[in-house]
Each structure stands twice: as C-alpha cells, then as structure tokens.
Design a protein that fits this description.
The chain is an all-beta fold. It has strands spanning 2-6, 9-11, 17-24, 29-38, 45-50, 56-58, 66-71, 76-81, 90-99, 103-107, 111-115. The protein has no helices and eleven strands. The N and C termini lie far apart (37 Å). Strands 2, 4, 5, 6, 9, 10 and 11 form a seven-stranded mixed β-sheet that branches. Strands 1-3-8-7 form a four-stranded antiparallel β-sheet, with no helix packed on it. Helices cover 0% and strands 57% of the residues.
Length: 117
Amino acid sequence: VQLQAFGGGLVQPGESLRLSCAASGRFFSIDTMAWYRQAPGKQRELVATITSGGRISYTDSVKGRFTISRDNAKNTVYLQMNSLKPEDTAMYYCNVEYYYIGLHTSWGQGTQVTVSS
C-alpha cells in the first residue's frame, strides 16, 4: 500500500491547515488510520487515530484543536488542524493498518507543517 500525504505548509500561529493522506495499492480493507509527527531532535509521536469502526483518539496536546476523519470510499484520512501553535511544527506522517493476506502497516512520506510568525 502506498500513501500520499498532502496539505502541509507554513502558517502563522492561530491559523489552520488540513492534511490529507490517500492510500492506494493492493489491500482487502483498511483498519486503523493515524497521524504521527516528528519535530527536529524529538521522537516520533502519535497525534491521532481513527479505527474502521470510527473510534477516535488524540494526544492530549491537540485535543480540542485537531480533528481526524476518514473517507472510506476514497481510502483517505484527514487531519484538520486549527489554532496551530509553534510547538505543532513537525513533519507529519500518515500511517495505516490494512489487511492483505494478514495485517500490515504502511507509512506515508511525510508533509512538513511549520507554524511561525
């Protein structure tokens, strides 16, 4: 499965961005879709997840500001990011778990989000 992520950019504090990540390739179904981020010098952290059943979770630092959603018909996951802060600056990666003769995981190439005045 290949993942293509879009939507990163340079914004000012308080502004918004919407990331999207589309999955393509061979799979029977997609289970959990997620967004991770990694800032320079820091470990990659889980930002948000959404299961095939619609269960959602967020890391505490983005609760109330970020919204994860998915379009199963398009095999796409979104991350709406509002009220962005400088500490949200990072490379954002999408990740999916999918079934194809077993359970597998795939990572996208990353999209840079920079929040700066």
